[in-house]
Write a structure and sequence with these properties.
- It is a single chain.
- Strand 1, helix 1 (10-22) and strand 2 form a beta-alpha-beta unit.
- The protein is built from eight helices and twelve strands.
- 43% of the residues lie in helices and 21% in strands.
- Helix 2 runs parallel beside helix 3 and helix 7 (171-178) packs across helix 8 (188-203).
- It has helices at 10-22, 33-42, 59-68, 84-92, 105-121, 152-163, 171-178, 188-203; strands at residues 2-6, 26-30, 47-50, 74-79, 97-100, 127-129, 132-135, 140-143, 146-147, 169-170, 210-213, 217-220.
- The longest helix is centred in the middle third of the chain and has 17 residues, at 105-121.
- It is of the alpha/beta class.
- 26% of the residues are buried.
- The protein binds calcium ion.
- Residues 8-9, 51, 53-54 line the site of calcium ion.
- Calcium ion binds next to loops.
Length: 221
């Protein structure tokens, strides 16, 4: 399995990388917060090891970005910040666990195992609508078994509509759940997103899947 290791200390990063690789992980490494955001936008990781004190973009902001993009990665914070308030803030922002530096590798191993067990237990069921099948565990949509090439936002939009099947989803509500509150985009982007998603669905033979309720929003029956 692949994980993202976000740590600015080259010494610790190297030790962690070797240790993780010896346990079968393929490891992507980011030495600062900005590099981490690039990796997180490009790949969907089951596990992220996150330092908080990072150059360029702080670890807490990396965490906020990751959760607002809808990532379900398990995030284990590895930080020298040892105050209760630091832990509480990281957990409130969506970290799954928190280990204070310096830590023992034995403890790290058991925390990682526990997080991966939780992921397996929490694997969400498939969402199905006719020939369309959406697998939230791996974030893939398929039509008749063929994967659709969706962008992360298109995928999230589709998953959201399917989770609330039969309900009309207002554009503003979709915007709020898909986009970072601080982003500059307006809820007009939802219209664009719906139309690119519809085009991809239509090419796969599902042109009628997403209905428009003019003045209200969108629904999948
Ligand atoms: Ca650091």
């Amino acid at each position: 399995m692949r994980l993202l290791l976000i740590e600015d200390s080259p010494t610790l990063r190297e030790r962690l990388r070797e240790w993780l690789a010896a346990r079968g992980w393929s490891v992507d490494e980011a030495a600062d917060g900005a590099a981490a955001l690039g990796y997180l936008d490009a790949y969907d990781y089951p596990l992220v090891l996150l330092d908080l004190g990072l150059p360029r973009v702080d670890g807490l902001d990396v965490l906020r970005h990751l959760r607002s993009a809808g990532s379900r990665a398990r995030v284990l914070v590895l930080s020298a910040r040892d105050q209760v308030a630091d832990r509480v803030e990281a957990l409130n922002r969506g970290a799954d666990d928190y280990l204070v530096k310096p830590f023992s590798f034995e403890e790290l191993a058991s925390r990682i195992l526990a997080l991966m067990r939780r992921s397996l237990d929490a694997a969400p069921p498939l969402l199905v609508a006719g020939a369309l099948e959406v697998d939230p565990a791996v974030r893939i949509a398929r039509v008749d078994g063929e994967p659709l090439a969706l962008t992360p936002k298109e995928y999230l939009l589709l998953e959201t509509l399917l989770r609330g099947r039969g309900r009309v989803h207002a554009r503003a509500a979709l915007f709020e759940s898909l986009y970072d509150a601080r982003s500059d985009a307006s809820d007009k982007v939802i219209e664009v997103l719906v139309s690119t998603l519809r085009a991809k669905l239509a090419r796969a033979g599902l042109s009628e899947l997403i209905e428009t309720r003019r003045g209200f929003g969108y629904l999948v029956r």
